[in-house]
Design a protein that fits this description.
The protein is mostly helical. It is built from nine helices and three strands, in the order H-H-E-H-E-E-H-H-H-H-H-H.
Length: about 230
């Protein structure tokens, strides 16, 4: 029987190329499934550990922030889900695939914009930094208020000034010297408003001149009449 078995075995055909490829693929598939199961178990373990960590964080009244180490996107998504289920806020900071991490905050103690900006820029954040930034912001507000007050005072000062510069108004028409004279004549007068003061000052002389002209005309008419009468008499 042993001799017969050896003869029969020697007569079997060796594995073909297709058979070898199928065996290789089968082995690779088994390794993939094994790796997937291992990764799945790791995810389950990470989720359980994270849930415990978050639960402890929620129950600790002295903690307001919980920072996780650098994690890949898949693990960060798990933390996000757990934080959301626990009613927490979650933010990611850092560079992807380099030092990206996640931090969760209690909703009663949300991060300020200053804190978020600092963390996004990879800067340190603590109470001393928060206090310093708050003082700087308050100083900026005070300076802005002072600047606004100065601006309003300057605006009121400009409003009190004459709206027109008569020298510039007439300069292009009659020249600088004549414009200066025109400006002096049209300065505001307490008695006459914006009417040229010299015109008002000359009012009596003008009336007198007209009276003189009328008187001259009257005398001339009388003289002409006298001459006419004299001629008739002669």
């Amino acid at each position: 029987m042993d001799l017969l078995g050896s003869i029969m075995k020697s007569m079997e055909k060796p594995p073909t190329v297709d058979t070898k490829e199928k065996l290789r693929q089968k082995k690779a598939q088994e390794m993939l499934i094994k790796q997937q199961n291992k990764e799945k178990a790791r995810m389950i373990q990470f989720r359980n550990e994270t849930e415990k960590k978050v639960t402890s964080f929620v129950q600790d009244d002295h903690q307001t922030r919980l920072k996780f180490p650098t994690l890949n996107k898949v693990l960060r998504n798990i933390v996000h889900e757990i934080a959301e289920d626990a009613g927490m806020l979650a933010y990611s900071f850092g560079e992807e695939e380099v030092d990206r991490y996640i931090m969760i905050f209690k909703k009663d103690f949300p991060p300020s914009e200053d804190e978020l900006n600092a963390l996004r820029n990879g800067q340190e954040w603590n109470d001393d930094i928060a206090k310093r930034l708050s003082e700087q912001r308050e100083q900026v507000k005070i300076e802005e208020m002072l600047d606004e007050k100065k601006r309003m005072m300057l605006k009121r000062t400009n409003q009190d000034k004459p709206k027109y510069n008569y020298k510039e108004k007439f300069q292009h028409l009659v020249g600088l010297e004549a414009a200066e004279q025109a400006a002096r004549k049209t300065e505001t007068n307490k008695s006459y408003g914006f009417v040229p003061s010299e015109n008002k000052k000359d009012l009596r002389s003008i009336e007198q001149t007209l009276a003189d002209i009328r008187e001259k005309k009257r005398l001339k008419i009388e003289n002409d009449n006298s001459q006419s009468q004299s001629s008739k008499t002669n």
